[in-house]
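To whoever is on call:

I kicked off a structure prediction for a single chain this morning and the downstream step that reads the tokens threw a length-mismatch warning. I double-checked the sequence; it's 572 residues and nothing unusual in it as far as I can see. Pasting both halves so you can look.
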Amino acid sequence: MALSRVFAVDCGAGHITCGLLISDKAGNLSLERLVSDAINPDPSAEDEWLAMVSNSLAEGSRSQKLSGVGVLGLPGHHILGKFIKIPAIEESKRAKIVQFEAQQNIPYPLTEVVWDYELVADPGLDLDLMIAAVKQELVQGACDALSKNGLGVTTVLPSSVAVARCFRYNYPEVKGSVVVADIGARSTNLIFIDAGRFFVRTIPLAGNSITQAIAEELKLDFTHAEMIKVQVLSGVSDLPVNSPIRGSVQQAVTNFIGKLHLEITRSVVNYRRQSGADQPTSLYLTGGGSALASLPAQLQERLKVSVEILDPLRRVQVGAGASRATELAPLLASLIGLAAPDSGRKSINLLPSKMLALLAFKKRQPLLILAAALIALSQVPPLIQSARHLAAVRSEVAALKEAILPLQVLQDRIRSNRSAFEAASAEIAAIQSLAESKNNWINFLSDLQQRLVKVEDVWLDSLQVIRAGSANSGASAGGELFGASGTQGPELNPDGTPVKPVIRLQLSGRLIDRNNPVSRVSPDSYLRIKSLLASFVDSQFISAVERESFDPNTPGILRFDFIMVIDPARPL
């Protein structure tokens, strides 16, 4: 189906044509506005083509205030078209086969192009498809140029497909096999139309071929040769009739017509061989190259078929805003075809995937907005009910707070009393521990005395306490025997109880060897001291004896030093 209102933009190699077309309920087209701009067709300026398209659209947008839905047509020399046959299978299974064929027939990675296919004919056993592809950066650049100038692109078509639609719209009575030659600046599209199917062959022979021949003959640059060609062929040149320049132009035209005749003949033969179609009965000419005055007559004489100029406005109403339509008719076939109805079958759209996704989202936007509104409305009754319930709950909470206020006062008192009780319990426990510690010192010294008496002839010279956590890891002063050994807080266990400190006692003493009063002590004295130290380990207060050392240098006396490790279970 054609759009009811569409801005069609036909981007050729040598012109940019924009038109506003409106379709009524019966599908009749009306051309309401038209603007056309010629651009430099020099093949060497191909890299500047997108910039020229953008500039031309900007000029047209300023003069015509273009806006709305846009359909874009791309010229044949930018389109790669392939015609294939695949088995007649349902559409849901067709995509994978077509993608495989595209990979085989498109000489670029599919990620670098935008490609699509159109169902050309469905004869029964096989399906005839046209695959078309265009470079991603080129079609994206052209779409961006339209978007910047107020046109939202929905469809991108090859100009050959658009011309075929234009012909079918304007010549519905033609049922036989015909050829439409769309002669542009860089290329010519030969479009074979037979009943419900079509075939396209793009050849690199067009208006630029004449210009190039003139430039080579006269040793001119392309732009100068193009100007001379246009002036001579349009009849506005002031050159003499017998001018060599006029002769060069006419000779270039004659050579061009001869080459075009051969290409058409070759293409007809190949098409009939491949498709089994009938011999074309007519040739229709369109495009800027069809304006050559002698072209229809010479081709008719050589091809022996009816040759006429295609009229793209044959069934199109022309509004006041398109006053130049008749003058520009040779350039309008693709433009009209962009807005003409399609066949109703799967058709080509070379719009980049990102823009297709955006269009699909925009189409769903009204439904999404409606769904969001319905969801929002469906939440109103629950919100009202929730507000009422919340007010009732808040009232109940206020009443409960008022009722539990006296209880909270009692709870605060209980917490205060509990804290006082816990503090008193901790103080009592500390006093009990201190009392036990005092008694342990008495019992420990008594036990120590008994063990010294058993050995005989032995006494202690010094006893110093070494408490864990002291600033000096050595012995502390004797005055700390019963006091604290530092100002740091107590170390705690994981359960929060204080860690019992590990206490070490450093002792020094002497033993008299009565049997050797004037010489070094005997081995027996060492055994007696060893026995004494071993007996200390058996004490309930002592867990280990460390750092034993002996000094036998005094005659008859054995000096000794050692450290006792106090058992934390029986602290001192």
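Update from on-call: the warning came from a stale cache, not from the record. Cleared it. Sanity check on the structure: The longest strand covers residues 29-38.
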